[in-house]
Amino acid sequence: PVFAQKNYLEESKSAKTQRMQWWHDDTFGMFIHWGLYAIPAGTYNGKDGGAEWIMETHKIPTAEYEKYAAQFNPQKFDAKKWVSIAKAAGAKYIVFTSKHHDGFSMWDSKVTKYDVMDATPFKRDIIKELADACKAEGIKFGLYHSIMDWHQPNANPKQKPAEKPDFAKYREEYLKPQLAELIKKYNPDILWFDGEWISEWTEAQGKDLYNYLRGLKPSLVINNRISKARGGMEGMNKYENAAGDFGTPEQEILKTNSQDYWESCMTINNNWGFVKNDQNWKSAEMLINNLVDVAAKGGNYLLNVGPTAEGEIPAPSVERLAEMGAWLKVNKQAIYATNSLENYKEGDNLRFTQSKDGKTTYAIFNKQDNNELSIASVQPKAGSKIYMLGVNKPLTWTNNNGKILVKLPETLPCKYAWVLKIETASRNSK
Ligand code: H79
To answer: Which residues form the Glycoside hydrolase family 29 N-terminal domain (predicted)?
Structure first.
C-alpha cells in the first residue's frame, strides 16, 4: 500500500495559532552565527571582505577553506555563558547555525566527516551543549540550516563540481538525513532555513521537506525560507499557500503592521559572522526602539551575535544586550505576549501594543514636552489609573476632547522608551 504523507499545509487557522502561540509571545530571540568563518574573521590573504560568506567573497577553493577546520579550537566556548547572555538580554529563544552556506556541520553528523567532531581538534558537540544549556534555562532552541551548500559537490556545481551534479541525491541523502539527525538528537523548537534561492530548490521540494519535518516533529516552527515564496529582503511571502510558518525580513523592519507571523532578523554591527574590523555597532537605544517598533507591528525580533574563533560573544554585543535586558526587566509587559493594534502608532514618537485580553494598552514613547504626554488615539476607561512602568505612583491625567494629557513623573525609570500602561475603554479609530 502507498501511505500518503500528511499534508501539514492544510492545518486549520486555529491549529496554527495554537502551535505558534509561544513563538509569537516570546517576541525576542538571539541569533548566533558561528562556524569556521570566525577564524578568518573577515580577512583573507590580507584582503578585507566577507564574514560567513568569506568563502564566496574571495572564491576560496573548497580544499583551501577546509583547512580552517584543523584550526577550529574555541577554548573559551561555554554554552552556559552564551545562554546566560541571551537570558539576561530578555531573549526567550536562540537560533544557532547548525550549518551555514559553507557546509560545515557544528554537530556530530553521521553523513559527513566535515563536522566539528571529525574535522576539528575541538571534538565537542557544540549543538548538544547549546541545546542542553537552553533546556536548563527554559530558553527555546532553534537551528539555522542552509539549503545551499558550497561544500557538497551535488549541491554546488560551481565550487566543487561532481562529475554529474545530482541535487536530488544531495537533498535525499544528505540534507534530509542531516535534518532528521538534528530533530532526533536535539529536539529543536524552530528550524530556520536559508539559501533557498538557488535554482535547484523548488516550491514542491519545500513543501515536501516541510511535511517531512513536521511529520518528525509536528510542533516545529519553520520559517518561510523553506519555500520559494520569500520576496527579497523584505522577507514576506509573494504568494499564498507556500510552505513555512513565518515571514523573514532581513536587516529591515516591516513598514507597517501585519497580522501574519513575521520575524525581523538583524545584526548588531554590520555582519552576521564575526568580523574583526567591524566596529559599526548600533546603540542600545536603537536596538530597544527596533524591538518596540517590531512588537508594535506584530512581529518578532531576532538579534544576532557573531562569536569569535575563541568562542566568545564580542563585548560590545554583550553590553548592548545587557542594556536591552535591563530595559525589558522594567518594561516586559509591553513587549512579550502582546498583540498588534491596527492603529499601532501615533506619529513618530508613539507606539502602542495591547495585552492579549485587550484590556490594557501600552504607549511607548521617546520624547515629551514639559513633562507631559498627549495621546489622541487611546481612550482610558473612565476613572481608571494610568501608570508608567517602573514607577509606583499612578500619574495624573486629564481628558481634553478625546485627547488625554498625562503628567509624567519627575524621575523617569529608564533613559528612553518609557511605557505608559493604560486601562483601555475603547480605541478611537484613525
Ligand atoms: O545568514 C545570514 C546571511 O549570511 C544570509 N542570511 C542571513 C540570515 C544571507 N545570505 N544572503 N544574503 C544574506 C544576502 C543575499 C541576497 C541575495 Fe537574493 C540572494 C540576492 C540574490 C540571492 C534574497 C534572495 C534576495 C533576493 C533573492
So the answer is: 1-332
Ligand 1 binding pocket (C-beta < 6 A) is 52-53, 194, 197, 232-233, 250, 265, 272
Cβ proximity of 307 and 32 under 8 Å: yes
Between the alpha carbon of residue 391 and those of residues 142, 329, 386, 408, the distances in Å are 36, 13, 11, 10
Cell digits of residue 300? 518578532
CB 300 within 8 A of CB 294: yes
For the record, the C-alpha cell of 421 comes out as 500602561
**Which helix (H) or strand (E) covers residue 97, if one does?**
strand 93-99
What is the pLDDT, as a whole number, of residue 4? 66
User: What is each CA distance from 24 to 15, 29, 288, 411, in whole angstroms?
Assistant: 14, 11, 18, 33
Nearest atom, ligand 1, residue 272 CA? 2
Q: Give nearest CA residue, ligand 1 atom 13.
A: 250
Distance 234 CA to ligand 1 centre (A): 11
Return the residue matching grid coordinates 532553534. Answer: 142
Residues constituting the chain: 430
Q: Which strand (E) or helix (H) includes residue 68?
A: helix 68-71
| C-alpha cell at position 47 | 584582503
Separation of 332 CA from ligand 1 center, angstroms?
32
Give 1 Cα–ligand 1 centroid separation in angstroms. 42
Q: What atom in ligand 1 is closest to the CA of residue 33?
A: 1
Distance in Å, CA 266 to ligand 1 centroid: 12
Q: Which of 36-45, 160-169, 194-203, 246-255 is the least confident region?
A: 160-169
CA of 232 to the centre of ligand 1 (A): 8
| Contact of 213 with 191, CB cutoff 8 Å | yes
Confirm if 321 and 386 have CB atoms less than 8 A apart.
no
Q: Give the ipTM of the model, two decimals please.
A: 0.94
| CA 250–ligand 1 middle distance (angstroms) | 8
pLDDT tens for residues 155-166?
987 777 677 889
Q: Whose CA is nearest to atom 10 of ligand 1?
A: 195
Domains and CATH numbers, the chain: 8-337 (3.20.20.80), 341-426 (2.60.40.1180)
- Name the strand (E) or helix (H) holding 387: strand 386-388
